[in-house]
Amino acid sequence: MEDYRRLLLNNKAWVEDRLNVRSDFFTASASAQTPEYLWIGCSDSRVPAEDITGTQPGELFVHRNVANLVVHTDFNILSVLQYAVDVLQVKHIIVCGHYGCGGVRTAMSRKDLGLINKWLRHIKDVYRFHSEELDAIGDEDQRYNRLVELNVIEQVHHISDISFVQHAWHRHQRPMIHGWIYDLHTGELKDLVKIDPGEHAHDIYEYDFNDTK
Ligand code: CO
Fold first, then answer.
1. How distant, in Å, are the alpha carbons of 137, 140, 152 from that of 94?
2. Given the DSSP bridges, would you call strands 189-195 and 176-182 parallel, antiparallel or unpaired?
3. If 0-12 CB within 10 Å is exposed, 13-18 middle and 19+ buried, where does residue 106 land?
4. What is the rounded CA–CA span in Å between residue 106 and residue 113?
5. Of 61, 69, 105, 93, which is closest to residue 165 (Cα–Cα)?
6. What pLDDT shows up at residue 1?
7. Which is the catalytic residue, given 6, 17, 22, 46?
8. Backbone angles phi, psi at 207, to 5 degrees
């Protein structure tokens, strides 16, 4: 049997399992989605959002990319964010990075990997913003782990800088934004940073709104 066929067979078994637990599972989940969480994680195959958070289909709205970046000119993530905030009205946005992230590791190096250099460049910027702290860490693995953390913190702030997120704060006092780190070695999530509605890293990113908008 070709390897990929295993996935299709697994699907049949999964459908049976679901129906055994709840006979109307698919009827119920097909009607609508009302997730309370937007998950922004790394594409890394070892960090499956639902598995590590014990969540079920319908609970997480998910976006994953290399090194869990929130890039202000990326229409893909901006569309996911705007839909999640304005239409799904999620209560929480979670940016989840992970120790051992290949994207962050590569960004710390001088490797030329072609197109992806452009994407990883955003992590090099994070390094530059925090170079004083990072350069003072002698141990390379510790410096790498800290850059993983700082990268998550920066992405959390990027979300708080977005005007439609601030607009949702202004009108609805949501969403809360969280930065977490997953540890591949232990399977545990670390709660690193939290931004409540209305908090800003710097005034320069704050927009004014009037209630008629
Ligand atoms: Co990664």
1. 27, 27, 10
2. antiparallel
3. buried
4. 9
5. 93
6. 67
7. 46
8. -105, 150
Instruction: For the chain, give every domain's residue range.
Output: 1-31, 35-205
Helix, strand, coil tally for the chain in percent (to 5): 50, 15, 35
Backbone angles phi, psi at 24, to 5 degrees: -100, 20
State mean pLDDT over 165-170: 95
Q: Distance from the CA of 23 to the center of ligand 1, in angstroms?
A: 37
131 Cα: distance to centroid of ligand 1 (angstroms): 21
CATH among 3.40.1050.10, 3.40.50.2020, 3.70.10.10, 3.40.50.300 for 35-205: 3.40.1050.10
Residue 66 Cα to ligand 1 midpoint, Å, equals 6
- Going by C-alpha positions, the residue among 147, 146, 109 that lies closest to residue 127 is 147
Q: How confident is the model at residue 184 (pLDDT cuts 50, 70, 90)?
A: very high
For the stretch 107-150, pLDDT in tens is 999 999 999 999 999 999 999 999 999 999 999 999 999 999 99
pTM: 0.94
Average pLDDT, the chain: 95
Rounded to the nearest angstrom, the distance between the alpha carbon of 41 and the centre of ligand 1 is: 8
